[in-house]
Design brief:
The protein is α/β, with parallel strands linked by helices. It has 7 helices and 15 strands. Strands 1, 2, 3, 4, 5, 9 and 15 form a 7-stranded mixed beta sheet that branches. The chain starts with a strand and ends in a 9-residue tail after the last helix.
Length: 282
């Protein structure tokens, strides 16, 4: 198991009542970051990369249950969990009285549990997570649960408000999956989760969307987030076809420990994009 642990010297678990925590659960890893609401500063980032994702739940459960930090009482505790069982619905089409009908239509509820939450671009997200992950979450004292994709939608909304960027493609790179948001004329055109097997698959989806929305490969930026390797073959392949490759950046309204400079910003930018204040709105 590979681990990253970046801890600012100001971190003190005795001050946990002033801390806000974001926990992220992916298919092959979990991470968490702590925000000091007094200093307005992110002061801790821990990441655990699991080598055997087939027994992920068995490995993940003791890592979380035995973690002394996660046992503390925090001012706020939210979780981002990845799922490819996800649908976004325009708010104008949403009807709370029919949520069960939506969930039954979208997902097989036998071995999963469905949730709804508000998201960016005036949308509602309907998503489901496996029974195993849901049982694991029941052991954690969290306050708010979100699908992982809510962060890339938030980032796309923030960038789309900038007048100098009209069209763009946002891509969160995950293990065997990519989350993609397409923006055209500063409006949401598409969100989807694609599964890929190799670099060719990876680029096929990007090229398909560029052709679908008639994006100029010389001018329209692809903004990558997620953990990538040095000289990552997926990104190198994309650079052969698309000329404006960019990388996601952390939310600039906060301060970050100098320790965070030890890793590329885009690796964990999704943990910082959505302000904690948004928890009240979503």
């Amino acid at each position: 198991m590979q681990q990253i642990s970046l801890i600012d010297e100001t971190f003190n678990l005795l001050n946990s009542e002033h801390y806000k925590i974001t926990l992220q659960i992916l298919f092959d890893s979990f991470s968490f970051t702590i925000f000091d609401s007094v200093r307005k500063k992110h002061i801790l980032l821990n990441h655990y990369q699991l080598e055997n994702s087939e027994n992920f739940n068995d490995v993940l459960k003791p890592l979380i249950s035995d973690n002394e930090i996660l046992k503390s009482n925090f001012d706020d505790f939210r979780i981002f969990v990845f799922t490819n069982n996800i649908v976004i619905i325009p708010s104008s089409f949403s009807n709370q009285d029919k949520n069960n009908d939506y969930a039954n239509f979208n997902f097989n509820e036998n071995n999963s549990k469905s949730f709804f939450c508000k998201s960016s671009f005036d949308t509602i997200i309907n998503y489901s997570i496996s029974k195993e992950i849901n049982d694991l979450l029941a052991t954690i004292k969290y306050k708010t649960l979100y699908p992982h994709a809510i962060s890339i939608l938030k980032e796309a909304q923030i960038v789309s408000l900038q007048k100098n960027i009209i069209n763009s493609l946002f891509v969160c790179v995950l293990h065997k999956f990519i989350e993609i948001v397409a923006i055209k004329n500063n409006e949401l055109q598409l969100f989807n989760v694609f599964q890929y097997q190799n670099d060719d698959d990876f680029c096929y989806y990007l090229n398909y969307l560029f052709e679908l929305f008639k994006f100029d490969k010389e001018k329209v930026p692809i903004i990558f987030s997620g953990i990538t390797k040095k000289n990552d073959s997926r990104i190198s392949k994309a650079e052969q076809f698309f000329k404006k490759i960019q990388y996601s950046k952390s939310n600039t309204q906060y301060i970050y420990s100098y320790r965070f400079n030890e890793i590329p910003q885009h690796h964990f930018s999704n943990l910082f994009i959505m302000p904690y204040e948004d928890n009240k709105r979503y």
